[in-house]
Each structure stands twice: as C-alpha cells, then as structure tokens.
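task queued by scheduler; priority normal; single chain, no ligands, no partner chains; default sampling; output format set to structure tokens
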Amino acid sequence: MRIHIATDHAGLEFSTQLQHHLAAAGHDVVDHGPLEYDPVDDYPSFCIRAAQAVVRDQQAGVDTLGVVFGGSGNGEQIAANKVHGVRAALVWNLATAELAREHNDANVISIGARQHTFDEAVTFIDRFIATPFSGEERHARRIGQLAAYEADGSLEPDPRASGSNGTSPLPASDTFDPEAG
C-alpha cells in the first residue's frame, strides 16, 4: 500500500522514524513534509499536498492512505479535510483508528505527535492501515451524504423544520428552554 505522510517541524523526528517503520512493513512511503527542521514552518501546505496525493492515487486505482501529524493533530486534520474527497479523522487511540476506517472509510488520519509516544502512534497507524471499511449500508449512506454536501451543498431534510420547503421553524413551544430544566 502507498502511504502519503506529512508533518511540520513538530513531527519531523517522528516522521523519519515512521517512514522507516512503514517501509519495513512493505509500504511505499511518500513524504510531503519539510526537508529540514524549521521551527516556524507551517503545516497546511504539507498536509494539503499529502491529502491531494491520496485522492489522486485513489482516483487512479492505487491502494493508498494518508497520515498527517503535528503537535496536536487538530490543525493537520483540518488542513487535510479541505481537500475534496478526503475524509480525515483525528486519531488518539486504537478504537478511533479502527473506527475511522471501519465506519467512516477515512482515507487520512491525523495524530498529535506531541500527544503520544512513537510506539503508541505507530500502533494507531498500523491499526488504521489494517482495518478495512465495513461497507455496511448505514455507513455507506452517511458517507454518501457527506459526499453530496461536498459536491453541491445538499443536505437531508431538517427534521426540526415544518412545511414543504424545510425552512419554517417549529412552534416556540417545541424549542429548547434552558430555564425549564
């Protein structure tokens, strides 16, 4: 499998170790991160390029996934999710790594390199790579709804709206009142 990875300065040492680990496991690793340590570099361009490469490869039929990381993983996940066709999930334990693939068919994960030991993060990444999408109808349906919104902004009807156009609010008596307890 081809694995696209990216980080900024916060994960540079982690990136080098991860590349060796993934290559030793037989993966084709493509690094989109910095070439040298720069404490003021910015993660968006690195992570977006990795995410773009994942989408490009998947469209070409290449078996591929992506891993982006930085200090917390939050910004890196946000950056990757800006790429059309990416479903990036923030992973912080084995369950979230597995569910990202199994339920959400995530094609990129984000990890906080400063939040976990290298060994912990590698177990998350290995689990993510090894877990297939379940293909269950409910999960496929939800992914389809995300893709529809991404494509044209369409959403399922709002259950709180009444009327045929879905824009009329419910009566005031049906709204949440925090004072009512």
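post-processing summary
- The chain has a mean pLDDT of 91.
- The two ends are 53 Å apart (CA to CA).
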